[in-house]
């Protein structure tokens, strides 16, 4: 059974272009929330298109490869859905090519009918309350680490 819905994880240990495509397609209605596994741990980007060879899909994935580190830093997982009858299509009702950014809370944060540059995507993500909290926590952790002083040695 061939499916055209693929996930490209952009986690630190992966390579977007050389990673094997992981089919995660489910028939419409087969799973209540096909994005449940990503909630609170990742920001899914869903690219809807009629074909994986759509020039906009190729352009978008090329952009993601160039900006892979920025996506990894923001916990992005990329899903390409070219299946005509999928649970994701039933949920989001895309037309033709569609780019969706889903927040860690499972809500749509950004939708666009064209490929999105990674710089633009990073700005959108970085303005979300959850990302602002993550950045603040990272700064606090770095500050705490730099304040740790080795105890004096006694002879």
Helix and strand composition category: alpha+beta
Largest sheet: 6 strands, mixed
Fraction of residues in β-strands: 15-25%
- Strands of the largest sheet, in order across it? 2-1-4-3-5-6
Compressed to H and E, one letter per element, the order equals: EEEHHEHEEHH
By DSSP, the count of extended strands is 6
Calculate Rg over CA atoms.
18 Å
Q: Level of helix content?
A: 25-40%
So how many helices? 5
What is the global morphology?
elongated
| Average pLDDT over all residues | 82
Q: In angstroms, what separates the terminal alpha carbons? A: 73 Å
Low-confidence residue ranges? 10-30
Main attributes of the structure:
155 residues, 6-stranded mixed beta sheet, single chain, elongated, alpha+beta
Question: What is the fold's blueprint, element by element?
Answer:
Layout: E1 5-9, E2 22-23, E3 43-48, H1 55-66, H2 68-73, E4 76-81, H3 87-92, E5 98-102, E6 108-112, H4 118-126, H5 129-147
What features would you describe in this structure?
The structure is a single chain. The chain is an alpha+beta fold and about 160 residues long. About 35% of the residues lie in helices and about 20% in strands. The chain contains 5 helices and 6 strands, in the order βββααβαββαα. The chain has a 6-stranded mixed β-sheet with strand order 2-1-4-3-5-6. The protein starts with a strand and ends in an 8-residue tail after the last helix. Residues about 10-30 have low confidence and may be disordered.
């Amino acid at each position: 059974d061939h499916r055209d819905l693929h996930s490209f994880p952009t986690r630190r240990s992966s390579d977007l272009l050389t990673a094997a495509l992981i089919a995660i397609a489910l028939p419409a209605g087969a799973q209540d929330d096909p994005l449940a596994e990503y909630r609170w741990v990742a920001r899914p980007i869903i690219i809807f298109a009629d074909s994986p060879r759509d020039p906009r899909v190729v352009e978008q994935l090329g952009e993601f490869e160039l900006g892979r580190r920025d996506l990894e830093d923001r916990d992005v997982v990329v899903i390409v859905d070219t299946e005509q009858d999928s649970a994701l299509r039933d949920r989001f009702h895309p037309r033709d090519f569609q780019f969706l950014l889903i927040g860690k809370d499972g809500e749509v944060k950004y939708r666009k009918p064209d490929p999105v540059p990674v710089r633009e995507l990073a700005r959108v993500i970085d303005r979300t309350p959850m990302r602002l909290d993550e950045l603040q926590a990272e700064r606090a952790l770095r500050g705490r680490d730099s304040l740790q002083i080795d105890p004096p040695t006694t002879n």
